[in-house]
Design a protein that fits this description.
CATH superfamily: tt1808, chain A
Distance between the termini: 70 Å
Radius of gyration: 19 Å
Order of helices and strands: HEEHEEEEHEEHH
Number of strands: 8
Number of helices: 5
CATH class: Alpha Beta
CATH topology: tt1808, chain A
Structural class: alpha+beta
Strand order of the largest sheet: 3-6-8
Number of domains: 1
Strand content: 15-25%
């Protein structure tokens, strides 16, 4: 009996560092998803305006109550290694405890709230891949808006 040897494909995926991702200067925004660099494209005026209105509304609530910080297009290093950058994010002061200053690079972990402003050209598949719900949403709920 002959033994059949099946060659295993060699995958040389680049391991991106935070510094390398931040050093990309081609004018596009990128996220790192499952080891692949994903071009998120550029945003138009309507997208930017919508984000600005949402940031102002959130700031008006969060800053006077000193609940945490609002970030704009800031990348987070998720537990699975992906680096995601929501349009707007909120990080509670509890999550920030222990930090003496915000890092120049990405924040570790997920934000308490991530907001993506959808564009007409976003596909259902793109949005579905970004949505990660906790297994027990009630246990993770810490809604400062209620």
């Amino acid at each position: 009996m002959q033994t059949l040897t099946i060659p295993t494909p060699v995958t040389d995926k680049k391991i991106w560092t935070d510094a390398e991702l931040m050093a990309l200067t081609d004018g596009n925004c990128y996220e790192l998803v499952n080891g692949e660099l994903v071009n998120m494209g550029n945003s138009g005026a309507l997208h930017g305006y919508t984000c600005s209105l949402l940031v102002m509304a959130l700031m008006n609530y969060i800053l006077p109550r000193q609940l945490g910080i609002i970030l704009d297009s800031t990348a987070f290093t998720m537990k699975n290694g992906n680096k995601r950058s929501p349009d707007i994010s909120f990080v509670s002061k509890e999550k920030l405890q222990g930090l003496t200053e915000l890092p120049d690079g990405f924040l570790d972990g997920s934000p308490d709230l991530a907001i993506e402003v959808l564009s007409p050209n976003n596909t259902i598949s793109e949005i579905d891949q970004k949505i990660v719900l906790p297994k027990n949403p009630i246990a993770y709920s810490n809604n400062p808006m209620t």
